[in-house]
Amino acid sequence: LTKVVALFFLSNCFPEINDSEGHPSSSHQTLKGTSKWATSLENLLEDPEGVKRFREFLKKEFSEENVLFWLACEEFKKTQGKKQMQEKAKEIYMTFLSSKASSQVNVEGQSRLNETILETPHPLMFQKLQDQIFNLMKYDSYSRFLKSDIFLNLKKCEEQEENPPEAQTAAKRASRIYNT
């Protein structure tokens, strides 16, 4: 019965959250992070659910490529082996940085970064550009995300789960009984 109530609650608060078969998701992780996400962009980006929600928001703003580039750079830093680094560096360049990129990010000095740098890759080769995108998100998109319906609805549902209306009603009844 508890799972049914949780699924009903989740489907009402988050109608867009469904599993692969279209049923409401039963994951409670969805409801755990808004307070932490609101403290910093770093905390938001450390949480897979936070990244998912932030991407959802950025997609609506037509700037999802920023977080995708940032994530690609984070993944690139973990890459081992020169051949793999060359392949991933080229993929990042072609996807986000070249003039023909499918998801081009807007960074300063972009034109100075050309394909010759891809021959000798190193883990921090995109760091300066990644920092520019991080700051763009931090001082622009992130503050709008915290005011967005996506974030505010998640926060509201999280608060309702922590303080269900029945518990508040019981507390009010108890206070009326003892205060009379």
Commentary on this structure:
This protein has 180 residues and is an all-alpha fold. The longest helix has 21 residues, at 127-147. It has one domain (32-159): Regulator of G-protein Signalling 4, domain 2 (Orthogonal Bundle). The chain is built from nine helices and no strands. Helix content is 63%, strand content 0%. InterPro entries: RGS (IPR016137), RGS10/12/14-like (IPR046995), RGS10_RGS (IPR037879), RGS_sf (IPR036305), RGS_subdom1/3 (IPR024066), RGS_subdomain_2 (IPR044926). This is RGS10 protein. Residues 40-155 form the RGS domain.
Task: Tell me the name of the CATH class.
Answer: Mainly Alpha
Intertermini distance: 36 Å
Structural class estimated from helices and strands: mainly alpha
Q: What's the alpha carbon Rg, rounded to whole Å?
A: 22 Å
- Element pattern in H and E: HHHHHHHHH
- Beta strand %: under 5%
What share of residues is helical?
A: 55-70%
Sheet of most strands: none
pLDDT < 50 stretches:
1-31
Mean pLDDT across all amino acids: 80
Question: How many distinct helices?
Answer: 9
CATH architecture: Orthogonal Bundle
Query: What best-fitting shape do the alpha-carbon axes yield?
Result: elongated
CATH-assigned homologous superfamily: Regulator of G-protein Signalling 4, domain 2
Features:
180 residues, mainly alpha, Regulator of G-protein Signalling 4, domain 2, 63% helix, elongated, GTPase activation, RGS_sf, GTPase activator activity, RGS10/12/14-like
Can you lay out the helices and strands and say which pair or pack?
Elements: H1 2-13, H2 34-37, H3 41-46, H4 48-60, H5 64-77, H6 82-97, H7 127-147, H8 149-162, H9 165-178
Helix pairs in contact: 4-5, 5-6, 5-7
